[in-house]
Design a protein that fits this description.
By secondary structure, the protein is an alpha/beta fold. It contains 15 helices and 18 strands. The protein has a five-stranded parallel beta sheet with strand order 4-16-15-14-13. A five-stranded parallel beta sheet has the order 5-6-7-11-12. A hairpin with a 4-residue loop joins strand 8 and strand 9.
Length: 377
């Protein structure tokens, strides 16, 4: 029930269709992040209206609260959060990295301290598969070890080796759970590590391929403090290594210009909390770059946030009103700007796909990036 059809390419950029039990995902595609089973401030029905077809939920957070047993009791994450489309869950590996001061990493797994109440818990490759099995997402991520983009080659090599050993254990437990599954099947994606080291990345792809076929590949360990130059170089390396007939999911990357740069380097799926996180601080994305609506210069501005956007906020409200809402502390401001930023990202991925299909992506993306970054030529 999982498959990928490559519809068009232009240089490394790709347009395809990723099929899942809960529907097709046209790629490139941006996935809104529903960390705790909800995209902050946005209802599932609104996500559907703004064009989102797949969302991401977080294994670590849902494990801690409300717990996978309760989610399973309610029929799985789709039924629990009232979302009928595809869902992808991450493994918790990034939270292990981001909460490094609260955990201990060993070959068997990770002992960590809850950020909620300080209680201690253990994640192993097997338990992470069991948690994601209970949550019932369409696509689940293997447990991996992510390090800072500034780590040494020795550290990156050790983490890559551990990620490979954990993947073998994840795959074994995943297949055991699938044998007992009563509902719709799940798909396991491996998560590539190797940091900014080209040969480590190549070697990990080869090792993962030796383990067997995968429905898709996740690229981890980027956008974690390395330079953009290093990120783009690694994506170019991986484009030549990852099988072309499978979708590539670039984890945690979701600023507008980063998405375009990554599409140009062969990536298909993206996620990031940035659209809603930035919105909560008054920051909006427009075709002419990023703006902060709290600024006094928008006090009498009657223009929409982005004249080219078709979201609810841009269709009905102006910058002056949205600024007033932020200054007054009205929650409506956060919701409207979240809808805008999410629609901006979803629409950007949609247009990138259209441009790849009609063969104009290279020229369009160059002009788009110049305008967004304020480059005048």
């Amino acid at each position: 029930m999982f498959g990928y059809r490559l519809d068009a390419t232009e240089s490394a950029a790709r347009a395809g269709i990723f099929s899942t039990p809960h529907g097709d995902v046209l790629t490139p595609s941006f996935m809104p992040v529903g960390t705790q089973g909800a995209v902050k401030g946005v209802a599932p029905e609104e996500l559907e209206e703004l064009g989102a077809t797949v969302i991401l939920a977080n294994t670590y957070h849902l494990y801690l609260r409300p717990g996978q047993a309760l989610v399973r009791e309610f029929g799985g994450l789709h039924a629990f959060m009232r979302w009928d489309g595809p869902i992808l869950t991450d493994s918790g590996g990034f939270q292990v990295f981001s909460l490094a001061a609260m955990n201990e990493v060993g070959d068997d797994g990770v002992v960590f301290q809850s950020h909620i109440d300080g209680s201690r818990h253990v994640f192993t490759p097997e338990s992470v598969m069991e948690t994601q099995h209970a949550l019932g997402a369409d696509v689940v991520m293997a447990f991996d070890q992510c390090l800072s983009g500034r780590c040494s080659l020795e550290q990156a090599s050790a983490a890559a080796e551990r990620t490979l050993r954990w993947l073998e254990r994840c795959r074994r437990r995943f297949l055991e759970l699938e044998d007992d599954r009563e509902g719709l099947p799940q798909s396991l994606f491996p998560v590539l590590q190797g940091n900014v080291y080209d040969e480590l990345r190549r070697e990990q792809v080869r090792c993962f391929r030796d383990l067997g076929g995968w429905d898709g590949w996740a690229i981890g360990g980027l956008s974690v403090g390395e330079s953009k130059v290093d990120m783009w170089r690694i994506l170019e390396v991986l484009d030549g290594e990852i099988p072309r007939e499978r979708p590539r999911y670039l984890m945690g990357v979701g600023y507008p210009d980063d998405l375009i740069e990554a599409v140009a380097r062969g990536c298909d799926l993206f996620d990031c909390v940035a659209p809603t996180r930035n919105a909560r601080h008054g920051t909006a994305w427009t075709a002419d770059g990023q703006i902060n609506l709290k600024a006094s210069r928008f006090r009498r501005d009657r223009a929409p946030v982005d004249p080219g956007c078709d979201c609810l906020a841009c269709a009905r409200y102006d910058r002056a009103y949205l600024r007033h809402l932020f200054v007054a502390g009205e929650l409506l401001a956060l919701r409207l700007l979240s809808l805008h930023n999410l629609r901006f990202m979803v629409r950007l991925a949609e247009e990138a796909r259209e441009r790849i299909v009609d063969g104009s992506f290279n020229s369009w993306s160059k002009a788009w990036l110049e305008r967004y970054r304020g480059i005048r030529v």
